[in-house]
Amino acid sequence: MKAERKYLLSDGGVTATYTFLQPNALRDAYMISTLLHLYNRDVPEETKMLVRRYRRETEFGVGYGVKKPNLEETFYASYILRDKAVISFVKSFESNGGFAKQPGGYPPYLEDTYYATSTLSLLSQRYSNPRTAEFIASLQNANGGFRRSIHGGISTLEDSYYAVEVLRRLEFR
Question: What's this model's pTM, rounded to 2 decimal places?
Answer without folding.
Answer: 0.86
